Amino acid sequence: MSQCSTPAYLAPMPARRPFKRLIAAALLPALLSGCDLVVMNPMGDVAIQQRNLVIFALALMLLIVIPVIALVALFAWRYRASNTDARYEPDWDHSTQLELVIWSAPLLIVIALGAVTWTGTHLLDPYRPLERLDATRPVAAGTKPLQVQVVALDWKWLFIYPEYGIATVNELAAPVDRPIQFRLTSSSVMNAFYVPTLAGMIYAMPSMETNLHAVINKPGNYAGFSANYSGAGFSGMRFRFHGLDDAGFAAWVAQNRKAPLPLSRANYLKLEKPTEKVPVIRFGRVQPGLFDAVVNQCVRPGTTCMSDMMRRDVGDSAAMTHMPGMGMPQRPRPQSPLTTSDAGAAPPAKPADIRQRGPAAPDQSRTPHQKPL
């Protein structure tokens, strides 16, 4: 009689060893100790305040989350089917004391979160100039912030220092403990400027200017990148941010001033063309007014600035005096019964009296007819 062997897929699985999982869980913190959680360990005061706000909000929410999870496990164990000693009250439906606890605790947490969020939203407004360098040092009266003009290009970052007349691509530097004012815009699509150790993310949009105030408190070489997808080269939109002491920053400025390449309008038009993984580029001179021209979309010669167009729309003809023919008084536009500003005017007696913008009948049209395919 032949012996039948058990199929492999029916054979009992070997017993798993739970202690291996415990060892792996114990080693996980050691493996993660090499990770730099820069958002939770920033080097700038604005980012530190934002981190503290996140931690405070998380702690408040855990005051509800942890007890609820613990009570779920407790109820499941205490009122299990095999526990015949547990109280059984099928007709119970209300407890005033329990209702007070259930509703008052979340209400107090929501009130606390709302107050902290409202205060933090105003204190950490990116448009608000800094009032302190850190928790113990206020900004001294008369301190002039370092202004950096930032342009998000495809796919690189342009940094202009109008105070020093220099510019760089994909490299940013600032002295330690000096307030920084960023003025940001974009050349084509919306982007997001983010240096996690410095401050929160801020958007850069074409034809608009956004502002960000921040300060770096410790020297170092930090990462910055784009936090908003902007096309094929998005992953390469990264730069380094150098926090330097006063002597180091002065040497960095001197190094850039020695660069022979100027950032003229012509060079900017070449630079704004889409390129990927661009190395650091330095410009020793910057044409005045270039950033404002980028914001107003009028870098290219002969292009009307958007600010001038808007001022002209509101009737300020003096805004266009620097452009030939644009500063002259405008003639009144002819009005018809359909374009008059008098909404209460009587309608025309005959529709035929209204001057038509196009042919009255299709057969009178001069547009060439589509030939049969």
TrEMBL record:
Its main location: membrane. One of its GO terms (biological process) is ATP synthesis coupled electron transport. Belongs to the cytochrome c oxidase subunit 2 family. GO terms for cellular component: plasma membrane. CDD domains: CuRO_UO_II (cd04212). The chain crosses the membrane at residues 53-77, 98-118. Residues 31-128 form the Cytochrome oxidase subunit II transmembrane region profile domain. One of its GO terms (molecular function) is cytochrome bo3 ubiquinol oxidase activity. It is a multi-pass membrane protein. Residues 143-255 form the Cytochrome oxidase subunit II copper A binding domain. It is found in: Cell membrane. InterPro entries: CcO_II, CcO_II-like_C, COX_ARM, Cupredoxin, CuRO_UO_II, Cyt_c_oxidase_su2_TM_dom, Cyt_c_oxidase_su2_TM_sf, Cyt_o_ubiquinol_oxidase_su2. Residues 318-373 are annotated as: Disordered. Keywords: Cell membrane, Electron transport, Lipoprotein, Membrane, Oxidoreductase, Palmitate, Respiratory chain, Signal, Transmembrane, Transmembrane helix, Transport. This is Ubiquinol oxidase polypeptide II.
